[in-house]
């Protein structure tokens, strides 16, 4: 394929035909181009047509030639083709390329630089906008008498560069950059210079410079640049070096705060906290801290010093006031001491009033307050302390605080503040270096509804249930919990669950729900709320109280015992009940009362039995629970015996001469005057038996010592008796009628006594 250029257009001559364009091969965008195609044969073969195409779109004709005009408005190369179309078959006849571009812009920012005093100057320039067609750049260098041309060697589309030949140091030079393409030409402004003006020094001799006002123990980067002549020439590139300044003595004091807690009545725990010095205050790397304790209100008190590398220190001390100082030290020295005073009593140092916390968003909280009321000591400042609610209640939270002058009544706290987190805030007033009582409040920077609910634990209590729950984990609270809701729903109910609001408090919460229906299945759950809304429900619990049948059993059981007690109060029914009970109880129950056969009063009876003028019926063993004694003949009964029922009881009276109680049966007793006919031994026996102190329930194996009357032997020298409570005595013995004749022996009678041995008869232990 050969090409030729028409006077005002361009053409392509091919073997099958010719193709012409109404413009040159390079045009500016927005130009209309008319393309024509002529076949060498007068007509296309068969039913074929001739067409001109641009990117497979074009116009077709039935004749031997075709023509069409195209608007070219995009940069770059455009290929137009002429083809014969026979059905679905296309055959190329000829084609022509048209480029759309821009004339060159004027080259700008022309500069020439020679590195060092030897070498070749390098000139650079900006080409301007992209031409999209072939463009040539040439540098014309002239010294007034000669001119040199240098063609660009680089092919960069944005900027050009060209190295010149070696220049003379004393000559003046002029440089012009020219650009040209098929759409136009352009030249830069001339640049005139001498070699000293474009010389850039690479290296320089070493020198020293002294810099002042630098921070101690700080790494600095130093850069140096220079040029050949103070007023002419170019600055060299920056050289870079690094160095660290030496340490200096610390010049700042630590920000000190403390917490005081009593441990018992004689000791206290003092916890100290302080903030690390800033880099400018530290003067270098802090190696440690020294904490000193000086007891107040003592003559020449000793000073105790302690060393630590942490920013906190705790110590158990005696309960007294202290002056505490903290200093920081590095390799060059110590910082000025920070001091504080601790005192035992702060009741006279009131807290600030009306403390409030407002969420400010952006991880900050506004805390405001009013001055304390009726403070005898002037306020020297305030301390605002805040700590995140601990995720683990066994871990001590990290305290952060800020000290403020007395004129400040508000503060925006932002240090270590996180969104959706609850903080406990304390505000203290300072009184001449002493911290007064604290005013507390909770606060948050921003809140969202809790992401989880609390775990619920129901406990049945009578006809209700005690609902308790744990706190929501701190990471899932979304802020400060403002309250809880307890939900209760019965099984199968179509109603909405009953809700009970409970305000939030410290620690786990609880609520008692009374009057639940027995036998009905209930479902319980609890939710938590913040200022942003209510969170999801926590774990559910299902509960069913015992059905009514259980209560009926309890009622019937109680009714049976009440009925039994009422029936046993009647003598005939009581006799039958005791007979039944005697048959059911084991045999060892009948041997619970100790044997008094060797008692002193029994020996006295044997010695004086001849003096008896009438028998007595005071102590006759009952037929229930005891062995029947052998019958003893008794002489001359004074009173005929009255029938004695099984239900007769011996009653203990509360009145009587000498402070003794009286034994009296519930059944009719002997006629008046019969007491005077009782033998003196039995009268003394009854009186002395009543003088025994009332025993405690149950058996006492080791009775305690009792004060003895004068002339008696110590209790430790007498044999101890097994004693049984007197409460068993009335149920075991009933007062029989006096008999007329016979002898009474007490070797088989068992009698209950008190827990303390008493003198009976001749003073021997009973």
From TrEMBL:
The gene is IL12RB2. It comes from Willisornis vidua (Xingu scale-backed antbird). It is found in: Membrane. This is Interleukin 12 receptor subunit beta 2. Residues 622-676, 698-719 are annotated as: Disordered. InterPro entries: FN3_dom (IPR003961), FN3_sf (IPR036116), Hematopoietin_rcpt_Gp130_CS (IPR003529), Ig-like_fold (IPR013783), Type1_Cytokine_Rcpt_Type2 (IPR052672). Residues 106-198, 252-349, 351-449, 450-548 form the Fibronectin type-III domain. CDD domains: FN3. It is a single-pass type I membrane protein. Gene3D superfamilies: Immunoglobulins (2.60.40.10). The keyword Signal applies. Keywords: Disulfide bond, Glycoprotein, Membrane, Receptor, Repeat, Signal, Transmembrane, Transmembrane helix. Transmembrane segments: none annotated. Belongs to the type I cytokine receptor family. Type 2 subfamily.
């Amino acid at each position: 394929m050969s090409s030729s250029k028409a006077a005002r257009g361009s053409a392509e001559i091919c073997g099958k035909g010719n193709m012409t364009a109404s413009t040159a091969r390079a045009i500016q965008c927005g130009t209309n181009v008319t393309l024509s195609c002529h076949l060498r044969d007068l007509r296309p073969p068969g039913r074929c047509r001739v067409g001109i195409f641009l990117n497979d779109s074009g116009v077709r004709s039935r004749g031997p030639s075709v023509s069409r005009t195209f608007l070219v408005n995009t940069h770059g190369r455009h290929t137009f083709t002429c083809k014969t179309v026979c059905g679905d078959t296309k055959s190329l006849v000829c084609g022509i390329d048209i480029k759309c571009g821009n004339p060159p812009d004027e080259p700008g920012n022309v500069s020439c630089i020679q590195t060092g005093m030897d070498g070749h100057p390098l000139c650079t320039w900006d080409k301007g906008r992209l031409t999209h067609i072939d463009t040539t750049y040439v540098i014309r260098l002239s010294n007034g008498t000669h001119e040199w041309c240098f063609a660009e060697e680089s092919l960069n589309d944005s900027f050009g560069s060209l190295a010149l030949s070696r220049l003379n140091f004393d000559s003046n030079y002029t440089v012009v950059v020219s650009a040209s393409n098929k759409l136009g030409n352009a030249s830069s402004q001339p640049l005139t210079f001498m070699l000293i003006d474009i010389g850039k020094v690479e290296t320089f001799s070493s020198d020293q410079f002294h810099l002042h006002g630098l921070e101690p123990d700080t790494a600095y980067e130093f850069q140096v640049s220079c040029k050949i002549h103070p007023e002419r020439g170019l600055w060299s590139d920056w050289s870079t070096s690094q160095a660290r300044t030496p340490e200096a003595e610390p010049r700042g004091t630590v920000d000190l705060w403390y917490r005081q807690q009593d441990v018992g009545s004689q000791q206290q725990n003092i916890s100290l906290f302080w903030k690390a010095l800033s880099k400018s205050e530290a003067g270098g790397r802090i190696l440690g801290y020294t904490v000193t304790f000086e007891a107040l209100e003592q003559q020449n008190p000793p000073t105790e010093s302690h060393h630590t590398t942490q920013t906190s220190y705790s110590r158990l001390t005696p309960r007294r006031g202290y002056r505490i100082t903290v200093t920081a030290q590095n390799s060059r020295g110590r910082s000025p001491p920070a001091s504080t005073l601790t005192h035992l009593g702060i009741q006279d140092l009131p807290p600030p009033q009306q403390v409030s916390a407002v969420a400010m968003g952006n991880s900050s909280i506004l805390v405001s307050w009013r001055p304390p009321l009726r403070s005898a000591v002037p306020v020297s400042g305030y301390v605002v302390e805040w700590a995140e609610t601990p995720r683990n209640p066994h871990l001590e939270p990290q305290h952060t605080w800020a000290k403020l002058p007395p004129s400040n009544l508000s503060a925006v706290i932002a240090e270590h503040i996180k969104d959706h987190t609850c903080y406990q805030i304390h505000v203290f007033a300072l009184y001449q270096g002493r911290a007064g009582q604290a005013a507390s409040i909770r606060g948050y920077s921003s809140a969202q509804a809790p992401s989880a609910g609390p775990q619920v634990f129901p406990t049945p209590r009578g006809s209700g249930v005690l609902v308790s729950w744990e706190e929501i984990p701190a990471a899932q609270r979304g802020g400060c919990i403002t309250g809880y809701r307890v939900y209760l729903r019965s099984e199968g109910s179509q109603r909405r669950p009953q809700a009970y609001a409970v305000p939030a408090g410290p620690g786990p919460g609880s609520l008692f729900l009374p009057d639940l229906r027995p036998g009905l299945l209930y479902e319980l759950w609890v939710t938590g709320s913040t200022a942003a809304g209510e969170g999801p429900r926590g774990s559910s619990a299902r509960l069913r109280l015992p059905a009514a049948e259980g209560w009926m059993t309890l009622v019937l059981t109680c009714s049976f015992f009440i009925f039994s007690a009422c029936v046993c109060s009647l003598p005939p029914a009581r006799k039958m009940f005791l007979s039944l009970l005697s048959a059911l109880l084991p045999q060892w129950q009948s041997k619970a009362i100790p044997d008094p056969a060797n008692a002193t009063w029994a020996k006295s009876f044997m010695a004086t039995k001849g003096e008896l003028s009438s028998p007595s019926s005071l102590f006759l063993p009952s037929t229930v629970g005891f062995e029947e004694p052998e019958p003893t003949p008794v002489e001359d009964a004074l009173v005929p015996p009255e029938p004695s029922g099984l239900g007769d009881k011996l009653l203990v009276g509360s009145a009587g001469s000498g402070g003794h109680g009286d034994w009296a049966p519930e059944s009719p007793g002997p006629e008046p005057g019969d007491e005077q006919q009782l033998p003196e031994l039995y009268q003394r026996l009854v009186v002395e038996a009543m003088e025994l102190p009332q025993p405690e329930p149950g058996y006492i194996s080791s009775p305690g010592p009792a004060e003895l009357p004068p002339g008696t032997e110590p209790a430790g020298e007498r044999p101890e008796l097994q004693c049984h409570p007197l409460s068993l005595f009335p149920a075991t013995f009933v007062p029989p009628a006096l008999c007329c004749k016979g002898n009474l022996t007490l070797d088989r009678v068992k009698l209950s006594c008190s827990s303390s041995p008493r003198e009976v008869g001749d003073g021997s232990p009973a």
